[in-house]
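Quick one - first record:
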Amino acid sequence: MKHRCLKAAFLLVAAAPVHAASDAAKRFGAREAIQQIGLSPDGKRIVVLMADSKRGVQAVIYTVDASTPPVSLISSTGEKEQLDYCQWASNDRLICGLSFTQGRVRDMVGFDRLVTISVDGKSAKVLSAAPSANALGVMQDGGRIIDWQGDASGSAVLMTRQYVPSVSTGSHIDGSSEGLGVERVDPVTLRRVPVEKPRETAQEYITDGKGRVRVMGLRPTTGTGYSGSKILYQYRKVDSNTWLPLSVVGGDAQTSSGFDPYAVDPTLNVAYGLDAQDGRTALFKIALDGSLKRDLVFARPDVDVAGLIKIGRQRRVVGVSYVTDRRQAEFFDPELKKLGAGLAKALPQRPLVQFVDATADESKLMLWTGSDIDPGEYMLFDKQTRQLGSLLRVRPPLDGMTLAPVKAVTFPAADGTAIPAYLTLPPGKPAANLPAIVMPHGGPGDRDEWGFDWLVQFFAARGYAVLQPNYRGSTGYGESWFKQNGFKSWRTAIGDVNDGGRWLVKQGIAAPDTLAIVGWSYGGYAALQSAVLDPKLFKAIVAIAPVTDLEALRQEHADYTDFKLVDAFIGKGPHVFQGSPAQNAGRITAPVLMFHGDMDQNVGIDESRMMANRLRNAGKSVELVEFKGLAHQLDDSEARTTLLDRSDSFLREKMGMPPLP
């Protein structure tokens, strides 16, 4: 039984070439210059993962005061390996995560490793435990840092370790060391001390941020080796090593129910977690003193809690975020609450603020600020001097460009339900008789929110109005809005998407002859299935890495441990055939353009190939652009430039619009 390793989806080989792409396609297609950033414990240095012009990543060390030249730490080409992150283990040393892959999609094995390296780029060592020479399997999981304050001195980290069974003597198989455990590891000496013995069903460990594991999640497997539908969480008291029951979380591939713990507060001796409250996700805390006293911390009557806000090396819980028209923060920490209000006044043009990192004493805070018309900037705030300084811009190629404001709107579905959405109009154009695009989001267990989106902004820059509907089946609005999910309840979800297109026409925003639909992943599925439901509504379809056949999607997971979860999410019944674009290709009349990477592990490229064949056999207009070696996100600047340029040209040609330079 294989474990699905989505990290391998970022291991790329070669993209389709770019031919005379527009300047806009090149600018918007360029990946974010800053892939990740971190602040040293003393606040004197930052580590930045910077994207190159194609698909590679380089980690660079800067001094905050620019007193010394930048130091190149480690890099990856993105061809056979990918640098995923680098974080500070101490002021002089970092820990970086890399992911690798072997084979092709049908037999692909992904694995990752952690390395530790000094700030001068020297003394690099593999931090992940070395696999046994007698191991009976591949150690795919190289470990994850779960506590950066692994002991009182701060000189060690706590990290998980995947133990693989091995042959010990003769033909005897030693299964006593199998599963996920925890070790305390010194990043300098590599000394390893077991903290939690390996457990075959262990899936997660949560610490208190001070070097002690307090919560453990176990997912029992079925008799056939597949992951079960429940996670059993246990906890231990401060003064005990005995594990006690905490909660049971059930669900499928994209949903869950029950108290799901995310963090432990050692001062309050509680676990913070999410659970349902009146049909919406709320934040609770449960006492870990043996009483299991449960208290509601934060809830909204209109939307779900989106997640916890954590800060510092101990990942201290300081607040919670939620999304109405825009993402909002509710801080529990009085100082940060006051600071958040101050930043809103200081940066009125960039109302989105996220705390990214902090020094060990939290005297300096690294943050990101941005908006719908600003891709964002990383900044450093000094609490003592009250100074806020700029560090790095996220997307320099877009600096100086006029971007399009994003407006929250609602439109009526056929049954009268008000569907929330975001409308982006091309800069300087009146909202009348425009070429327009409905762009459903992926997931389907996801939602769009207010902010910068490179795909939306590109099309707005090319003169299109763009509507992003949060159709029923989206997350964030509670259980009743999610329905059964966007596959089982596809008629409702796709109906809402189509009603968004009809609303654009009825409002006079869109010209009916230049109305298109563009989507990625589930959004690509929605783009194709929209034409099955109403063949005459959209005049052109662009689907990127789309699901095209629900049964094929199910079978893609057949050899992986998550099969039962995916199987439950897709379900059984007439909707599997009726809700599959490839099975209903004959109903589609609009021309179709698809893009897909041939290393996509989220949605296999065979789904797009199947769709293209079915459309051709039915005498329909279809093009499929395959990107060699690319995965689901097409994380390559040249590939994304091609995608944007080809999509724009396709829409203009098929809808009778004049080309733009």
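second record:
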Amino acid sequence: MTGIGRWLAGPAGRRRLWGAGAAPWGRLAEAAAQAHGRVPLWLDRPLRIAPELGVDTDYAAFAELVVDTSAALHQAGLARGDVLAIVKAHNVDVIALAQAAARLGAVPALLAPDFDPGTIRALLHRLGGPMTVADDVAITRHGLATPGLIRHLVSVDGPAAGGIALNRYRGHRAPPPAPRTEHELVALTHTSGTTGVPKLISHTGGSLAGQSLVQVLGGRVMLGRRDVIATCLTTAHARTLSGLATIAALGLPHLAMVDPDPASAAPLMARHRPTLIETFPNVFTRWESMGEDPAAPLANVRIFLSTFDAAHPRTIHKMLAASRRRLPVYAQAYAQSETGAIALSFRFSRRRAGDARHVGWPILAFNRVRLVDPSTGAVVRRPGRAGAIEVRGPGLFAGYLAESERTAQGWHDGWWRTGDLGSRRIDGAVRLQGRAVDAVAAVPDYLAWEDIVLARLEELDELVILADPDDRPVAVVTTRDNRPLNPDRWAAATADTPGLGLPLVMRWEQLPTTATWKVRRPALRDQLFP
């Protein structure tokens, strides 16, 4: 299947099946507008680079914004082959800036503004101190106006924080598009930072097409002209880059949210009635209460899609139960930024979600997966036996920027080692055990235990099991609406878990999280046990 996947993701396959999604990555916004016209694009907040568009706009207006911004960046001095760092609050204008840079043949580097200043500065240094577009909050927080840090600083807000206003460069004609080729570097994103300073991930036109493949083909099969897509994703994440080809190919109305707060998301979904919703698993967990909302914001959803991390069974059950469609489906993509979707699984039952650590079949994502002994590299062939997960497929990245040695360490005989541990069922499905660096010796299957306890305690929003400095398991929880946790209910729910005492109760905003709102376990350990 990987051979078929490579053909389908290659130029010939894309020309036959992808429609507007076959355009070079830097031309996708324009291709979508040309193919589909003024299809609605709804936002949950105005764009900082074009507040006049409001929150009810369309594909054509977005494409015009990309072209106009391309002209402004060119006037600011951005040229083909340059890197443009983008450090601003999450919103669709991050993608507009990235498309505008790629249209010129420059390479956008999307940096999440949520990182600490030391991390942002380290990433900018690794990028060579490039031209940077930022908002004033990021400029102030990260000290981006510090002399010598970057080549040129442009602010989407104006000159107050030390950058040159983006609007100062507007009003010029855009140069002809010059997007980069299939095998050239087209964009940079970063890893989640769960294990330290994030790595910069190099994406070529071909690798992004490979990551988009399963989304485009799945959309062709499962969606029709009456469908409405809703997403709630962080715009500095690799998923937003690959997802753009899907949006261009399908041309469906799109509700693009960046605020996961149910108070913000629920009214928008109640208004626009999406039939497909994609977000990260932890966001779906925060949205569980929407099933009790009288406005029924999830009632029209046919497909719930979560990416990158495994969802909790309780969350899957509550999402399916909140839909009023006849046969809703929860689709789960086990994925990484370096690979795209590795495996896919589908759940239909409103009554039971089963083992959510069963993350699906690689063949459905046009990939191959193997398990190896982490110490010896020997291939693990016995079903049910755990090993390190390695993958081959059409969406594999081009390496970590400026870290060739670290990139080489991840490759093993043409297979990419993901850093995850798991096992295979006899039917080839992958069961995820967790990250190797997060292993808890006393609770080897810690993710499954988290699922079990969360299913027993509805009042929990999140549960993380860590190892303390003496390698004993410690539970950290957040509760719905920050209500106190009943210790008797906790004791009853964890009576059969190995060595788990009373938990540490925290507020969600106190937890260190990644760009996918996943808890950064190493950082949480360091926070709790300095």
